[in-house]
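Tokens as discussed.
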């Protein structure tokens, strides 16, 4: 295997075969590199793209980054069907097999402890959004106001404008508060049915392209055997509150729990 070594994940040895047609980053098939009680899942990547300098430049290229992340995720997803992988960071590259083995040797204790903790478990992601009607800014335009005469072309007085603006602020704050309370209750309920949980920063709608205001962005570590029950709990909350959207993603490799417990 020529080229640099791109490392996707670390696992314990497993017997099941990976998909025969599976390709990874730069189109190369992933291989298993055994070292003592660990396996690194690697593939060869060209130095012209993955040496330190070109890789740094590529990470600023959104199209390249998206394609690479998709290929990386494809390998992790394939691993998740046959074992419990410990995903490594996108763009983890070593000079050769020897460099990968040195990394496994140096971090062996941490890898083994984390793999023991994650064995037989997957990550589920849950997000809660306030739909536009409940979470829109009090500054946002509301359209013609027939009650106060806008539709008829009448001018609104300064007093009327301020009164309406104050009412919008109160409605906005009330809707947001109810959504945050709902999200807090949901998180407490789901955390009680998971072995571990992580609260991530809310996602920006501008960056994610998702409508609504994100008030919960959480990950839950759940045993595979209990995943069906966990999904049913989430599904029962959907549509529970008007103006609130609950999204479930997974099951994933346990990215949010790959480090040592905080």
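Sequence:
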């Amino acid at each position: 295997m020529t080229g640099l070594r791109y490392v996707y994940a670390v696992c314990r040895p497993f017997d099941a075969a990976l998909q025969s047609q599976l390709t990874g980053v730069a189109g190369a098939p992933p291989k298993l590199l055994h070292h003592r009680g660990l396996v690194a899942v690697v593939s060869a990547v060209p130095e012209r793209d993955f040496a330190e300098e070109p890789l740094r430049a590529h990470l600023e290229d959104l199209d390249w980054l998206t394609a690479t992340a998709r290929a990386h995720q494809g390998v992790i997803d394939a691993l998740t069907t046959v074992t419990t992988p410990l995903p490594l960071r996108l763009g983890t590259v070593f000079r050769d097999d020897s460099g990968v083995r040195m990394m496994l040797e140096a971090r062996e204790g941490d890898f083994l402890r984390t793999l023991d903790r994650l064995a037989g478990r997957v990550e589920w992601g849950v997000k809660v959004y306030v739909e536009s009607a409940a979470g829109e800014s009090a500054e946002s335009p509301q359209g013609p106001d027939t009650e106060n005469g806008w539709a008829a072309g009448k001018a609104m007085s300064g007093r009327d404008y301020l009164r309406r603006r104050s009412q919008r602020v109160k409605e906005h704050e009330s809707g947001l508060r109810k959504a945050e309370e709902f999200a807090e209750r949901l998180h407490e309920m789901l955390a009680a049915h998971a072995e571990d949980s992580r609260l991530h920063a809310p996602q920006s709608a501008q960056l994610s392209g998702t409508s609504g205001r994100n008030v919960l962005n959480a990950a839950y570590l759940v045993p595979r055997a209990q995943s069906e029950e966990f999904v049913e709990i989430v599904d029962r909350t959907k549509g529970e509150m008007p103006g609130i959207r609950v999204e479930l993603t997974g099951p994933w490799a346990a990215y949010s729990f790959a480090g040592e417990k905080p």
